[in-house]
Amino acid sequence: MGAVRVERVGEGLYLADLGPLDTYGWMSAYIVIGTNTLVVVDPGPRASAGTLAKLLESSLSKFEKIYLALTHIHIDHSGAVGDIVKLLPGVRVLVHPRGAKHLVDPSRLWQASLEVLGDLAKDLGEPKPTPPEAIVPVEDGTVIDLGGLKLLAVYTPGHSPHHVSYLLEPPGVLFAGDSIANYFNGRAYPVTVHPFSAPEYLSSLRRMIELRPNRIAVSHYGIVADAPEVFVQRAKDKLHAWIYLIEKLLSRGVQDPETVYLEVLKEDLELAYAKNLEDSMPTFRGSTYRAIKGLLNYLLSKESSSR
Ligand SMILES: [Zn+2]
Prior knowledge:
Layout: E1 5-10, E2 13-17, E3 28-34, E4 37-41, H1 49-57, E5 65-69, H2 75-78, H3 81-87, E6 92-95, H4 97-104, H5 107-117, H6 119-124, E7 135-137, E8 143-145, E9 150-155, E10 164-169, E11 173-177, E12 182-184, E13 187-189, H7 198-210, E14 215-218, E15 222-223, H8 228-251, H9 257-267, H10 269-278, H11 287-306
Parallel strand pairs: 4-5, 5-6, 6-7, 11-14
Antiparallel strand pairs: 1-2, 2-3, 3-4, 8-9, 9-10, 10-11, 12-13, 14-15
Helix pairs in contact: 1-3, 7-8, 8-9, 8-11, 9-10, 9-11
The protein binds zinc ion.
Zinc ion binds next to loops.
């Protein structure tokens, strides 16, 4: 297994490329260093738990508190938590209350992961349970004091019903997880996997822009180079473009996910580019397909509920 590659991206802020399954440039965890406190935002899948724990172990004596701050519990973000807490007792896990029970008993999370990700879930690893006493629930407005820095939890559902983002102040960095989009080659790809909700997603985008972050840090992948509002606008435009394309297909009676996906790929060259990336990134495999299928599911269920 490859090592975690750590890069300084700001004052007391580091990007850790977890490189699960030797795939680099796909899963970024962020390490924030406050006075006596260290935070890892989204420690990643179980497949890279050992290397990350080793990295943290060396810092353990220097900090009074270590937090694992989860934006949400999808196994590519949270799968490492059970192992890390076991290896390094005393580590605390920040998560929205709706996600907490699935860390304590990951059996339903694991079943859902197998259904959505198939073999990829097995490669990323089955999460181990997290002891409830290690969990600190965070809701909209919860502030974690890091000594000189503050981490504000902001409820940002849409990608998943329990998604929170974190604003680090100063310096105004927003850890957005999957709530805005994947970021590759300067483009924004909303992560519209099942069970996506467009109205919640759009209101979360508004919420995040109102916070006026200076920078946005996403999970897949890295710190966004564009101005935050440009990135968010791109994500919004992309969502609307996909909805337009899929609704056009639905109006012609096309609703088979495979066909819808291939048709959208033909029309959207940016998506076709992301599809090409998947060939070099095993952990990214099927990601564009899952996004389009998730959005299709959302549009179909909206249609059937309005009938
Ligand atoms: Zn996710």
